[in-house]
């Protein structure tokens, strides 16, 4: 089709504007991302075969108390390793036919049509990112971003994260608490015991001043905690409240409802599960050239149509598993 003068510029300009909106929404409409922003939880990289996160796996064993002229050990003691994460990609397209263009003649009408279609794409990509953040990363043949279900696992002594094999007693294991399995005589989580279970999980994910900065609770856990705290004055986290998240604070840690309904009907956080996250050690790494950016619009060679792609490339990376935890019943 003959492209009217300035049409490509209109498409590109609209796409760039919507791309910025999408980037802001991804950061501001997800409780984990809002918390991560407190700790510089977003990073852009220019490339590389994988995303590499250096981390400590052991102490310096030459350190010791000494007296007078005692000799220090100079033995080689490796203490640093690295987790490697594969790049994951997410994208979608906005398709405009020549018929659509001609039926919506005039720049104002066409921009309105484009804006609606870009908005639909934004909602879909945002939903897929949020779902992916909480996933195992198994969807779509393993092409999905690896999320909390793998990084903060219910089975932390098995599997592989960042190329590091998790084993019993391993340094890259997160904490898990399944009360009916890990506490003698315990029952499933309820309003009567949820504060006990939350406290135990917090204790086991605290290292000095490092402790969970965010708890994401499934619907059953969130309701139980609200019931258990009804006799107390509720406090909310101002950062999350300003972003629009319903939350309460337990032992200084904001607790956010992670259940509810997603656009595609999938369950985000299972009802009887809570994640205890130290978001200082979780980062969303994004390729600087694929941060929900709109590619140049392309005229089809065999259709009366134009298409614009929006792409993202990156990974959610973990650099310290010991200070992450999960409480669950099933």
Explained architecture:
- With 330 residues, this protein is of the alpha+beta class.
- It has 10 helices and 15 strands.
- A 6-stranded mixed beta sheet has the order 7-15-11-8-10-9, with helices on both faces. Strands 1, 4, 12, 13 and 14 form a 5-stranded mixed beta sheet that branches.
- The model is unreliable at 1-7 (pLDDT under 50).
Outline the low-pLDDT stretches: 1-7
**In angstroms, what is the radius of gyration?**
24 Å
For this structure, the quaternary state is single chain
* Helix content bin: 25-40%
Number of strands: 15
Structural class: alpha+beta
The CATH architecture can be named as Alpha-Beta Complex
CATH class: Alpha Beta
Largest sheet: 6 strands, mixed
User: Beta-sheet strand percentage?
Assistant: 25-35%
Number of helices: 10
> How many structural domains does the protein architecture include?
1
Q: What do we call the CATH topology?
A: phage-related protein like fold
Order of helices and strands: HHEEEEHHHHEEEHHEHHEEEEEEE
Task: Give the CA-CA distance, first to last residue.
Answer: 57 Å
Q: Kindly state the mean pLDDT as a whole number? A: 84
């Amino acid at each position: 089709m003959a492209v009217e003068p300035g049409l490509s510029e209109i498409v590109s300009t609209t796409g760039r504007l919507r791309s910025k909106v999408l980037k802001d929404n991804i950061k501001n409409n997800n409780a984990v991302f809002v918390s991560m922003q407190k700790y510089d939880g977003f990073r852009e990289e220019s490339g590389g075969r994988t995303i590499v996160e250096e981390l400590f796996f052991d102490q310096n064993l030459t350190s010791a108390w000494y007296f007078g002229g005692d000799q220090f050990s100079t033995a080689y003691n490796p203490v640093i390793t690295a987790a490697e994460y594969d790049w994951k990609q997410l994208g979608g397209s906005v398709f405009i036919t020549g018929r659509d263009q001609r039926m919506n003649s005039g720049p104002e009408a066409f921009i309105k049509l484009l804006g609606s279609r870009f908005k639909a794409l934004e909602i879909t990509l945002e939903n897929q990112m949020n779902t992916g953040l909480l996933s195992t990363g198994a969807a779509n043949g393993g092409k999905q971003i690896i999320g909390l279900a793998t990084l903060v696992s219910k089975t932390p002594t098995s599997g592989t994260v960042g190329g590091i094999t998790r084993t019993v007693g391993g340094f890259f294991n997160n904490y898990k608490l399944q009360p009916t399995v890990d506490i003698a005589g315990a029952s499933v989580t309820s309003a009567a015991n949820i504060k006990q279970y939350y406290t135990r999980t917090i204790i086991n994910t605290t290292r000095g001043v490092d402790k969970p900065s965010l708890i994401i609770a499934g619907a059953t856990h969130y309701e139980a905690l609200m019931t258990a705290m009804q006799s107390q004055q509720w406090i909310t986290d101002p950062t999350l409240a300003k972003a629009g998240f319903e939350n309460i604070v337990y032992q200084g840690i904001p607790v956010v409802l992670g259940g509810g309904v997603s656009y595609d009907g999938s369950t985000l956080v299972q009802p009887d599960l809570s994640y205890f996250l130290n978001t200082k050690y979780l980062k969303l790494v994004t390729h600087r050239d694929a941060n929900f950016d709109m590619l140049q619009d392309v005229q089809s060679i065999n259709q009366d149509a134009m298409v614009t792609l929006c792409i993202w490339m990156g990974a959610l990376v973990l650099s310290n598993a010991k200070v992450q935890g999960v409480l669950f019943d099933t």
